[in-house]
Amino acid sequence: MTAALSSAKAIDRKDDIEAALVQNVATALSEKGRTKRSAVRLAISRAVANGALKPGDFLPPEKRLAGILGVSLGTVQAALQQLQLRGEIVRRSGYGSRVISTDKFANSVWHFRFVDRADGHRLIFHDQHVAIDTVQGAGVWSAFLGEEQTCCRIIRHMQLSNGVQVMAFMYLHDALAPRLKTVEPGELSSVNIRTYLQDEFGIVTARAENIVLSTKADATIAAQLDLSPGVNILELKARAFTHDETPVYFQRILAPADHCALAF
User: Fold this and answer.
1) C-alpha dist (Å) from residue 69 to 18, 164, 186
2) Is residue 84 part of a domain?
3) What is the pTM of this model?
C-alpha cells in the first residue's frame, strides 16, 4: 500500500468516525430529557457498540469534538470523564482519548465487568433502559439499609454485546438524595452511577463488598431477562459504604449464567 493510499484511507476513517458521532448526538438529543453531556456520552458509547469506533481508535481532539457536535468544551470533557470511569476509553494529557481494548481492564474500572463465558472477552452494553421509583418496607435491601426506610430504587434493564439481557437494581435511602427521583431516567443510561451520585449529590463511596451467587431465575426475573423459569443465573449483591462505614447503597445484578461471567 502506498503512503498516499494509506493516508487517504486514514482521512476517510476519520471522516466516518466524525459523521457517526454527529449522527449519534442528534439522535440522543431527540430523546426526551436528554442533556448535551449525556448525549455526547451516549454518542461515543453507541459508536463503540455498533463498530463505528473500534478498539484502539482515537477520538477526535476535544476541541474538534466540541465544534462538530455543537457543544462546549466543558461538556465534551465531562462526557469523556464519565466514559473513562466506565472503562470505555483512556484519556491522557498530550495523548488524546482512545477506545480501550476489549480484553483489558482500564485502571479506572471499579467493581467488575461482564465477560463472554466462552472466550473471556469483555462484553459492552449495547442498550439500557432506566427507571427510577421508591420502595418501602421489607425487601432484599432491608438487611443493609433497614426495613423502616423509604428507598429510592434505580432499575436498569441492559443488553450486552452478545445479546444477553441483564437486570440491575440499586437501592439507597431516599433522604440521601431526594432529588434523584426528579432526574430524567435517561440521564443514568451509560453512566457510572457511583460517580454520578458523587458528582451530582456529593455521595462518596469509599468501599464496597461484593458477593456472587448461583441461583435459579424465578418467573418474574425470567420474564424480564427473556429466559425460561428455573434456568441458572448469576446474582451479584453489592453493599457500598462511605468513609465512616455509613451504608450508601445496596445493589443486585442478575445475568444468565450460561452466557456470561463476571471478572473482578
Assistant:
1) 9, 32, 19
2) yes
3) 0.71
Please provide residue 142's backbone torsions phi and psi, each rounded to the nearest 5 degrees: -65, -40
Residue 216 contacts residue 230 (beta carbons within 8 Å): yes
- The residue segments making up the domain with residue 245 are 113-263
Same domain, yes or no: 176 and 223: yes
Strand partners, 254: 167, 235
Domain membership flag for residue 105: no
65-91 tens-digit pLDDT: 999 999 999 999 989 988 887 778 888
In angstroms, the CA 46 to CA 175 distance is 34
**Three-point CA angle 222, 225, 231, nearest 5°:** 45
We report the CATH number of the domain holding residue 74 as: 1.10.10.10
Amino acid (1-letter code) at residue 158: M
How far is it, in rounded angstroms, from Cα 164 to Cα 215? 17
Assess if residue 108 is contained within a domain. Answer: no
Under DSSP, the state recorded for 101 is: P
Q: How many residues does the chain have?
A: 264
pLDDT at 108: 42
Which DSSP helix (H) or strand (E) runs through 216? strand 207-216
Q: Counting Cβ atoms within 10 Å, is residue 188 exposed (0-12), middle (13-18) or buried (19+)?
A: buried
